[in-house]
Design a protein that fits this description.
heterodimer, A: 202 residues, mainly alpha, 3 helical TM bundles of succinate and fumarate reductases, 8 helices, 79% helix, B: 251 residues, alpha+beta, Ubiquitin-like (UB roll), Fumarate Reductase Iron-sulfur Protein, Chain B, domain 2, 2 domains, 5-stranded mixed β-sheet, 7 strands
């Protein structure tokens, strides 16, 4: 696409947040939800994902590179803003701030989460139900995971709202209002899925 | 006879380089007074609340009926025009500050040049000059004219830039006002002929993409201009324009 670097980067940032990162997030949460059945169902599902063909390519192009770009450019956007919710306490302005806070929390969480699971797997550890149950045996980690996962889910849902605006899909105030309700519905739904999963390991 | 007094706390600055400081004033109340008539009273008798003689407060004004935008300042924390800020409707002490998003010239007077530069950058006009009479342009439907009139109410006052979290010294964002003007001129049947030029101008650095959807602009605009609707509509137009630019188009 032509236009400037800023325009191109900003649009790519918006697109990558939904496709593929958002899709991956939903897939990841849904597969993990097998944990609410039993350990065996979770291990079977995890093993299936693990043994997908071309896994390293899928991971690189669907997960690592998009998240890396989204994170780096997202931090640039975050620190460019001069937040002013105390003076302008409007709903959308608060969402603007929360989107940036949850983005940074999500980045910290993902960095830790990848280290604890994917990197450890590369060192030979087996990723299974017991690994997660072990991590979540500490109450601190339960809190950390709850905050991290809920931040990620909120950032995705509210990011979906701004994706619709940024690409010009929702233009009128009414469409943006309806889109607020729909995306907050997405947040609640995914929050239920992820909290149920976290508690399944405890 | 004791007169009712009105308290003001005014942020003052002697020149663009010096640090701002606060000065308090107490002036006699008059019925129906606005912030500007209060400032005029200070100018008439420049004595602060401590009784010391001081310099008169500098501010800008023009039309006195909220259509020129010159007298915008931050009044009790919110950017607005001082001509329509009625003293009886404000909580005291009334705090006046300049809109610091812009360079402060002196006291409450600011330099809004960046907005006028932005209007030039996005080509917020309709080119009609030719070497011969081009004849009448296409007609504009009345319903569309009425709609466009709302967008044309923008007075370049700068309130939307002051309210926007993304217009600041870290960013080169031109702000909501000039973007909405692109929509206005692109909607005009003659202006539409140069639509692509304007869209490409706002796709440049510091343009449309810098908007973070905080939507403070639409909440703050004194003229009630649907700024965020304009921005979203331009997002849609530039989506198509970007693909046309990249892949080419047979128009």
């Amino acid at each position: 696409m032509a236009g400037s670097r800023d325009f191109f980067n900003r649009r790519i940032h918006s697109l990558l947040g939904v496709i593929p990162i958002g899709i991956f997030l939903v897939q990841h949460l849904v597969v993990n939800h097998f944990a609410t059945r039993d350990a065996e169902a979770f291990n079977k599902a995890a093993h299936f994902m693990e043994s997908l063909p071309f896994r390293i390519f899928l991971e690189t192009f669907v997960i690592y590179l998009p998240i890396l770009f989204h994170a780096v450019y997202g931090l640039y956007i975050t620190f460019q803003a001069k937040n002013n919710v105390t003076r302008y306490g409007y709903f959308r302005n608060m969402m603007f701030l929360v989107q940036r806070i949850t983005g940074v929390i999500t980045l910290v969480f993902i960095a830790w989460h990848v280290w604890e699971t994917r990197v450890q797997a590369a060192f030979g550890q087996e990723v299974n139900f017991d690994m997660m149950a072990d991590i979540l045996s500490s109450p601190f980690m339960v809190a950390f995971y709850l905050v991290g996962v809920l931040s990620a889910v909120f950032h995705f849902a509210n990011g979906l709202w701004s994706f619709f605006v940024s690409w010009g899909l929702t233009v009128s105030p009414r469409s943006q209002k309806i889109s607020t309700y729909v995306t907050m519905g997405v947040f609640v739904a995914l929050a239920i899925v992820s909290v149920r999963t976290i508690f399944a390991f405890i | 006879m004791s007169t009712k007094m009105v308290k003001f706390v005014i942020s003052r600055q002697d020149n663009p380089e010096t640090a701002p400081y606060l000065e308090e004033f107490e002036i006699p109340h008059r019925p129906n007074m606005n912030v500007i008539s209060a400032l005029m009273e200070i100018r008439r008798n420049p004595v602060n609340a401590k009784g010391e003689a001081t310099t008169p407060v500098t501010w800008e004004m023009g039309c006195l009926e909220e259509v020129c935008g010159a007298c915008s300042m931050v009044i009790n924390g919110k950017p607005r025009q001082s001509c329509t800020a009625l003293v009886d409707q404000l909580e005291q002490p009334i705090r006046l500050e300049p809109m610091k998003t812009f360079p402060v010239v002196r006291d409450l007077a600011i330099d809004r040049s960046r907005m006028f530069d932005a209007l030039k950058r996005v080509k917020a006009w309709i080119p009609i000059d030719g070497t011969y009479d081009l004849g009448p342009g296409p007609r504009m439907p009345e319903t569309k004219r009425q709609w466009a009139y709302e967008l044309s109410k923008c007075m370049t006052c700068g309130v939307c830039l002051e309210a926007c979290p993304n217009v600041n010294t870290n960013s080169d964002f031109i702000g909501p006002a000039p973007l909405s003007q692109v929509r206005l001129f692109n909607a005009h049947p003659t202006g539409e002929m140069n639509k692509e030029e304007r869209l490409n101008a706002i796709m440049d650095d510091g343009g449309l993409a810098e908007c973070g959807n905080s939507q403070n602009c639409v909440q703050s605009c004194p003229k009630g201009i649907p700024l965020t609707t304009s921005i979203a509509a331009l997002n849609r137009d530039t989506s198509f324009q970007a693909f046309k630019n990249f892949f080419g188009s047979d128009r």
